[in-house]
């Protein structure tokens, strides 16, 4: 699918180097320019510092290995703006165990190395998901016992051997349909919902100190899917299965932030789990306009302020910080501009919205 060129890229450039984050260092790419037709972010607030200042553990970003050759991008990713990173793809099953019992850790290792050298924590993402699952698992005819062993072996190797990452794992990703039923995949179809406790127990055995999360979208506001996730948490807790956190992915559409986001977070934390905003972006129908960017600023503030107000909402992660590497345009035709930095790595008004939400 062809990406739409941002309007900014089509208009005359002026230098906006004063809009760079204070800690981004001097830009060497020559691409940090923007048009005066659209407003930029102006805040010099440092996101992770602000988040920690209000008692959160981190403000972070997803990233992906192909981006590591982009020096201007890396200057921001590695800066103190972000205290946490999530690998967008390189710790998933297809990347780590493409063939049975053949493990490849180089992609995830590179993410961990960046985190370690820049003092960031890592959210491991993810261990059991129907997507990006190699066919030797998804198309298998494993018995329940065999698939249990396959899950346990995958997790003990990925978590236990290589990625003692010191923070959290999305152990189970996106287990529910929008109507609150379980996704019909090889895990559920073979093991029923037991695959969830099998995975969580295996992750706990591999790294007893890691926070273990279930991550999903469409659970951010109250409703059938959110209720299903809350019921799952209660069942897991009642059966002494280790579950520490629920990830609210938060892939939102402009102007459609759930009005009960905060109270829904509180409904989860009341069950004894933390909440994390794990994949925040807010997409708009292109082209960007000043009005849309202003609405996006307000929406980012709303989301971040909700987490800020809930003590059990421990951190927030954007699903990459720049429109340059957003997954949105290739997935939602005609939509994009979802991130707090534009495709030229210049802060957008959304950045100021995040700062306002953290203040
Ligand atoms: O690795 C192949 C490469 O070999 C091939 O040449 C290329 C051609 O298209 O594709 C590459 O795979 C792509 C992969 O990202 C790695 O770049 C896939 O096509 C592409 O579909 C895949 O997209 C990822 C998507 O998950 C897949 O479900 C996105 O980058 C990633 O940001 C996205 O992340 C998910 C979270 O894990 C879960 N929540 C939703 C979120 C957004 O979809």
Automatic annotation (TrEMBL):
It catalyses: Endohydrolysis of (1->4)-beta-D-xylosidic linkages in xylans. GO terms for biological process: xylan catabolic process. Residues 62-357 form the GH10 domain. Residues 1-19 form the signal peptide. It comes from the Eukaryota. Its EC number is 3.2.1.8. InterPro entries: GH, GH10, GH10_AS, GH10_dom. One of its GO terms (molecular function) is endo-1,4-beta-xylanase activity. Belongs to the glycosyl hydrolase 10 (cellulase F) family. This is Beta-xylanase. It comes from Coniophora puteana (strain RWD-64-598).
């Amino acid at each position: 699918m062809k990406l739409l060129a941002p309007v900014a890229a089509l208009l005359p450039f002026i230098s906006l180097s004063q809009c760079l984050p204070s800690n981004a260092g001097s830009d060497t790419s020559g691409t940090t320019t923007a048009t005066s037709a659209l407003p930029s972010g102006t805040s010099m607030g440092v996101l992770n510092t602000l988040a920690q200042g209000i008692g959160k553990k981190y403000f972070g970003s997803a990233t992906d290995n192909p981006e590591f050759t982009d020096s201007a991008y890396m200057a921001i990713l590695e800066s103190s703006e972000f205290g946490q990173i999530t690998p967008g793809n390189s710790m998933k099953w297809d990347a780590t165990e493409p063939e049975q019992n053949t493990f490849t850790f180089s992609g995830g290792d590179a993410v961990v190395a960046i985190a370690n050298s820049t003092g960031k924590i890592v959210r491991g993402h993810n261990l059991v998901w129907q997507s990006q699952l190699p066919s030797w698992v998804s198309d298998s005819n494993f018995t329940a016992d065999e698939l249990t062993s396959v899950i346990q072996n995958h997790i003990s190797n990925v978590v236990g051997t290589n990625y003692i990452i010191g923070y959290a794992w999305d152990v189970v990703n996106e287990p529910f349909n929008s109507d609150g039923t379980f996704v019909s995949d090889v895990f559920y179809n073979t093991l029923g919902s037991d695959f969830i406790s099998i995975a969580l127990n295996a992750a706990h055995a591999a790294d007893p100190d890691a926070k273990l999360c279930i991550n999903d979208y469409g659970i951010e506001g109250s409703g059938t899917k959110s209720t299903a996730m809350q019921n799952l948490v209660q069942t897991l807790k009642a059966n002494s299965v280790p579950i520490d956190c629920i990830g609210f992915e938060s892939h939102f559409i402009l102007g459609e932030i759930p009005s009960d986001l905060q109270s829904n977070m509180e409904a989860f934390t009341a069950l004894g789990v933390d909440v994390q905003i794990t994949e925040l972006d807010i997409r708009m129908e292109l082209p960007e306009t000043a009005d849309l960017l202003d609405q996006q600023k307000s929406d980012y503030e709303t989301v971040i302020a909700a987490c800020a107000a809930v003590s059990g909402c421990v951190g927030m992660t954007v699903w990459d910080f720049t429109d340059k590497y957003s997954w949105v345009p290739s997935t939602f035709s005609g939509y994009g501009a979802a991130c707090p930095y534009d495709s030229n790595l210049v802060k957008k008004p959304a950045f100021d919205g995040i700062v306002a939400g953290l203040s």
